Amino acid sequence: MEGKEIKNVLLGRIVATHNNVEAPDFETMDIYGHQLALSNERGKYVLINLWATWCGPCIAELPAIRRIRKQYPRSQLKIISVSCDRDSSAFAKAIKKYKMTWTQIYNDKNLIIKFGGVTSLPQLFLINEQGQIIYNRNVSKNGASANLNHLNALLQNSLKHS
Questions:
Q1: Number of structural domains, the chain?
Q2: What distance in Å separates the CA atoms of residue 31 and residue 113, rounded to the nearest whole number?
Q3: CATH of the domain at 40
Q4: What is the span of the domain harbouring residue 36?
Q5: 54-94, pLDDT tens digit by residue?
Q6: CB atoms < 10 A from the CB of 49, how many?
Q7: Residues 132-146 pLDDT 10s
């Protein structure tokens, strides 16, 4: 069991520090008890956001993610936020306060590890229709920008051709 955990941590660190790698598949449950698997989302783009209520830059990024949600239909883009919080009531309040109307996952440690763990937040990954990570906030030159210009440009170019 230990060997598998170490392997997952190392693979997660590769994912967290590179673009153009295959996104790790995962199965999890959202906060409403619905099953979710990345493999079931093939054919659409998936934006994965690792965040926490206590992370200032995470909160600052939420309006940009909310604009992205409004701009692209759910049939083309699935947005999944994965909370790294341990306080479920703070998490629930934040979802309402920041009008996070997309898929929410609460503190799924295995999923968080697959995307690099909580070494730095926020983390944001755009996965294309074939399952490749084409945007990784941690390696993007424009990653620190709360308005996410580079990500928006990628989405506009990718989804207008879909």
A1: 1
A2: 19
A3: 3.40.30.10
A4: 2-159
A5: 999 999 999 999 999 999 999 999 999 999 999 999 999 99
A6: 26
A7: 998 887 766 554 554
